[in-house]
Design a protein that fits this description.
The chain is of the alpha/beta class and 480 residues long. It is 38% helix and 15% strand. The strands form 3 sheets. The chain has a 7-stranded mixed sheet with strand order 4-10-9-8-7-5-6, sandwiched between helices. A 4-stranded mixed sheet has the order 1-2-3-13. The protein has a 4-stranded antiparallel sheet with strand order 11-12-15-14, covered by helices on one side. The structure holds pyridoxal-5'-phosphate. Pyridoxal-5'-phosphate binds next to helix 7.
């Protein structure tokens, strides 16, 4: 079947090999066995390597990673959706190196041109009066701050997030994150937080399977277009019940949602839900927060921000991961009116707005623009989705192919009819095998049965052919 899909493979191999020769670096350091021992003895036990045989990564170049033995991998996960423009992108490296020689750190107690210039450049990417930027260091920290802003600016306490969402692992954001996989038995993180039913078209109870926001352009589209799908209305009624039964009248602080759920398994929502939800929240005194930690910076192709696909302008937007191409940088943007609430007491962050992080962030934005990476995400992402859709038509275990641009999920099931998650060992067998074929995918979803594909946005169609071919072979090797 893949003869026709792999029409670019010869070209790909040439390019692949030349990049490999160019950037593979000699590994200097302890061998894998030694690193395993060091990790076991000295690293927090929750940090577990994901593959059966862990990877010892030595270097990276654009969409490729190299292990300690010099083996080259196509990176289809980008360090968990974080390497946006490419590993060690030369333009970003140069910008950070230049800053490194000039100034590392001041904090915000002095005027810092990199902080102001970067904030201006970033805010120009936003509509309306979203123009006040607060720079922080991680997605969790950004969402913590957004939670504080929502509560302080409205004077209300009650927050809503969606089931199956992931908003971070700090003490505050743990309560927003809604999955037993990420829950610790400790009191109070959930205080004032309500988890609404997830408008999930594949695994949700009310269907809407073909009524996703931005469905892939295949003949599977239908539903909302004909106005027959009622899934959004039913999920929305369930959200209204939270307001009816659990929140003091008119006293909502806000709602937070990813534009597409990432860790939860690339879950797109039923069409129109987010828009209706944001209006309901505002009518009840709250603000709407879009978590663009995974979906921002052009990854979705059609739009620079995921919230644009939902046809809303949020009150607060949080960003991390791709913002710095792997440099620890994150941000919150909001309106001047909401930002004002933080002046009633001191609020400070030692590393937020660090000159090195700002240099990285500025260079990333410039690369996205100069290299047309949003457009590449659209073209190559759509090609990826369509190629995977062909796999879905061949294999019973490929239950769903979804996503937008270069934010893609492939859900593995026992059968298309049952949609029961594929047994863990079977899924792991397929996924571990793709590594042997030189392709690194992520995995996630509540049951861990979703391949997560979120590569650096510089990936090519030839790379896609290689990745889909590797997945095809791996599914066959597992006996399907
Ligand atoms: C959507 C989303 N929000 C927030 C976070 C938390 O970001 P961090 O790990 O940088 O704290 C993540 C991390 O995966 C995420 O995917």
């Amino acid at each position: 079947m893949f003869a026709q899909i792999c029409k670019h493979s010869r070209l790909f191999n040439k390019r692949f090999l030349s990049i490999r020769a160019y950037s593979s670096r000699q590994y200097v350091g302890p061998n894998l066995e030694k690193v395993k021992v060091l990790q076991k003895n000295h690293v927090a036990p929750c940090h577990k390597p994901i593959y059966q045989e862990p990877l010892l990564i030595n270097s990276g170049k654009m969409q490729y990673l190299y292990d300690a033995n010099g083996k080259c991998y196509l990176d289809c996960f980008g360090g968990i959706v974080t390497v946006s423009v490419g590993h060690c992108h030369p333009y970003v490296v140069e910008a950070v190196e230049n800053q490194l020689r000039k100034l590392w750190h001041t904090t915000v107690i002095y005027m810092n041109p990199s902080l102001s210039l970067y904030s201006q450049k970033l805010s120009r990417k936003f509509p309306g009066d979203l123009n006040v930027v607060y720079l922080v260091n991680s997605g969790s920290e950004a969402n913590d701050l957004a939670l504080l802003l929502a509560r302080l600016s409205t004077g209300n306490y009650e927050m809503i997030s969606l089931q199956n969402c992931y908003h971070g692992m700090s003490y505050g954001t743990m309560g927003l994150t809604s999955s037993s996989n990420w829950r610790f038995p400790i009191p109070s993180v959930n205080s004032g937080i309500h988890h609404a039913k997830n408008p999930d078209p594949f695994n949700g109870r009310h269907g809407g399977r073909f009524c996703r926001t931005s469905p892939i352009q295949t003949n599977r589209n239908c539903g909302c277009i004909t106005g027959e799908c009622k899934a959004t209305d039913i999920y929305f009624e369930e959200l209204k019940d939270i307001f009816k039964y659990s929140i003091p009248k008119g006293k909502c602080a806000g709602m937070i949602a990813e534009s597409i759920q990432g860790v939860g398994g690339t879950v797109q929502f039923t069409k129109g839900y987010i828009k209706k939800a944001s209006e309901l929240v505002r009518n009840n005194g709250g603000v709407f927060i879009s978590d663009e930690v995974q979906t921002g910076f052009g990854r979705l192709g059609d739009t620079f921000w995921g919230f644009e696909s939902h046809e809303i302008v949020p009150d607060i937007v949080t960003m991390a991961k791709g913002i710095g191409n792997g440099f620890p940088l994150a941000a919150v943007i909001t309106t001047p009116k909401i930002a004002e609430c933080l002046t009633q007491a001191s609020h400070f962050n030692t590393y937020g707005g660090n000159p090195l992080a700002c240099a990285a962030g500025l260079a990333v934005l410039e690369v996205i623009e100069k290299e047309g990476l949003q457009q590449n995400s659209k073209e190559v992402g759509t090609y990826f989705l369509k190629s995977l859709e062909q796999l879905r038509s061949v294999y019973e275990v490929v239950g769903d192919v979804r996503g937008q641009g270069l934010m893609i999920g492939v859900e593995f099931v026992e059968s298309k009819e049952s949609r029961t998650p594929l047994a863990k060992e079977k899924f792991q067998q397929i996924w571990n095998r793709t590594k042997d074929y030189g392709v690194l995918f992520g995995c996630g979803g509540f049951s861990g049965n979703v391949l997560r594909i979120k590569p650096p946005m510089c990936i090519s169609k030839e790379n896609v052919d290689h990745a889909v071919d590797a997945l095809d072979k791996s599914i066959k090797d597992a006996g399907f």
